[in-house]
């Protein structure tokens, strides 16, 4: 098993070889062509790092009970990416659970510190939902909708301008 320091060192070398800045900006490669850099993030202790070589497909807040339990709050903030674009370094554990929608998903979390990192819906294997709080720079998150608003709490104040669905997005 790798130590957290070894994982961070490996990931730093790995990121440097891909010329990523980690802020979603475009940079020029050695050939002078512009390309998007990766979105990066990781767990609280640094033992798990990830890189996603794609822009998010969508973003949402979810107030289902499963997400409330994952975050210890009234909702989760999720950015959805193509799963093939994500690379992970470190020891991630996955737990198969049934979501409030009835669909099964794999929840990924750091084995060392327990930080929830992502969920992979089994019925949509080409997508991965990343918890926005694990991004190195979550400031660009733009949710488009609130799902499972029927399970929300009065103390959990979200943007009132966002469309709210009582359950899962169709």
- Element-by-element helix/strand order: HEEEEEHEEEEEEE
The stretches of 5 or more residues where confidence is low (pLDDT under 50) are 1-34
Over all CA atoms, what is the radius of gyration? 17 Å
Output the CATH topology.
Answer: Metal Binding Protein, Guanine Nucleotide Exchange Factor, Chain A
Q: Which outline best applies?
A: globular
Largest sheet: 7 strands, mixed
**Widest β-sheet, arrangement of strands:** 8-9-10-11-6-5-12
Which percent band covers the strand fraction?
A: 25-35%
The structural domain count equals 1
Number of strands: 12
Q: What proportion of the residues is helical, as a percent range? A: 10-25%
Verbal overview:
The protein has 170 residues and is mainly β. The chain has one domain (4-151): Metal Binding Protein, Guanine Nucleotide Exchange Factor, Chain A, CATH 2.170.150.70. It is 12% helix and 34% strand. The chain has 2 helices and 12 strands. The longest helix is centred in the N-terminal third of the chain and has 14 residues, at 4-17. 31% of the residues are buried.
Quickly list its features:
disordered N terminus; Metal Binding Protein, Guanine Nucleotide Exchange Factor, Chain A; 170 residues; single chain; mainly beta; 12% helix
How would you concisely characterize the structure shown here?
It is built from two helices and twelve strands; from the N terminus they run αβββββαβββββββ.
